[in-house]
Amino acid sequence: MNKVVLITGASRGIGRDIAEKLAQKGYQVIANYNRSEEKAKELKSKYANIDIYKADVSKREEVHNMIKSILEKYKKIDVLINNAGISLTGLFTDVTDKEWNKIINNDLYSVFCTTQEVLTNMIMRKEGCIINISSIWGIVGSSCESIYSVAKAGVDGMTKSLAKELGPSGIRVNSIAPGFIDTDMNKCYSKEDVQNIINDTPLEKIGQASDISKCIKWLIEDNFTTGQIIPVNGGLIIN
Fold first, then answer.
1. Strand, coil or helix: what is 30?
2. Mind listing the pLDDT tens digit for each residue in 189-228?
3. Residues 138/82, Cβ–Cβ less than 8 Å
């Protein structure tokens, strides 16, 4: 059987592009979605090797049931791509407890929860690949996106820690930290804001979802990279 890949938040944006590119390469893809059912069904209809599964990955019970169903059908999960997430823009002083919890649950707790549910199978088989989709704002922080930055920094911290903990079990854990990518999540930026970002980027362009998918494919096929936070950002930040 080909590698079984679970992608959270796969009905739109970066997650959808990853799902399509991996399906084209012959992987068995399970595309998780929550609200975008029509887009998920459209994705499934295009590829015989894409299954879709509805689950809110910020809720433990739904994640548990999803992983259980996948393992009952496919007996394994070779690759987990934690892509699902949401953003919040606004002043730190205006952030409510409800907004804090929503961002942390969707962007950080979901990674903890899904990874934990998948690990039993990976550890038993002594192999696995976990790829977390983070953000450059998790590395350098972003003005007026403080909670999002906190969540993504947490994802990166979890990535590094788990790489050390799971390495002896043959499991690699890495994070991709995209820069400004042309997705629906960033449609809220004005043309002027986008141009300013382009001006600040050495390659003088914004990224495409396919730029992330290419990095994903490499990390799946690689066997000696773990614990890394890989910025894919056109040089917008250079560490």
1. strand
2. 678 877 888 898 999 898 899 999 999 999 999 999 999 9
3. no
Residue 148 catalytic? Answer: yes
SS3 237: coil
Distinct helix (H) and strand (E) counts, the chain? 9, 7
Q: Is the pLDDT of residue 188 over 70?
A: no
The two tokens of residue 88 are: 């919040």
Closest CA to 135 of 121, 154, 122, 112: 154
Dist. CA 173–CA 214, nearest whole Å = 17
- Which pair of tokens denotes residue 26? 């012959």
Rounded to an integer, what distance in angstroms lies between the CA atom of residue 171 and that of residue 129?
6
Interhelix angle for 110-125 vs 60-74, to 10°?
A: 30
Q: Is the pLDDT of residue 89 over 90?
A: no
| Token pair belonging to 76 | 């394994």
Q: How many residues appear in the chain?
A: 239
Give, in order, the Cα–Cα distances in Å from 199 to each of 14, 205, 206, 213.
23, 8, 10, 24
Catalytic pick among 27, 53, 109, 148: 148
